[in-house]
Amino acid sequence: MDWVSHHAPVIGLLFFVIFFTGMAIWVYRPMTKKTYGEYAQIPLNDDEFNQDNTINIETKKTETHHE
């Protein structure tokens, strides 16, 4: 028990460095760039969706007929 309490700061540091490095690698994977790009556009496309997150086709048709 004395060994664990003596080395706790080093164990904690190693844990968080490994966790941070793993998360950084997972977030910045090349194959997720398209997904994150789509997620970034969600706030800009808010007018196309209803409250229940379905596409509002009726509004789009109506808007195009009024133009």
Which key phrases capture this entry?
67 residues, mainly alpha, 67% helix, elongated
Could you describe the 3D structure shown?
The chain is mainly alpha-helical and 67 residues long. It has one domain (2-66). Helix content is 67%, strand content 0%. It contains 3 helices and no strands. It has helices at 2-27, 33-41, 57-66. It is elongated, with a radius of gyration of 24 Å. The termini are far apart.
**Overall body shape:** elongated
How far do the termini sit from each other?
76 Å
Largest sheet: none
Mean pLDDT: 79
Unreliable residue stretches: none
Q: Count up the domains.
A: 1
Strands, total number: 0
Instruction: Please indicate the percent range of residues in DSSP E strands (runs of 2 or more).
Output: under 5%
- Determine the number of helices (DSSP H or I, runs of at least 4 residues): 3
| Cα gyration radius (Å) | 24 Å
Q: How much helicity do the residues have?
A: 55-70%
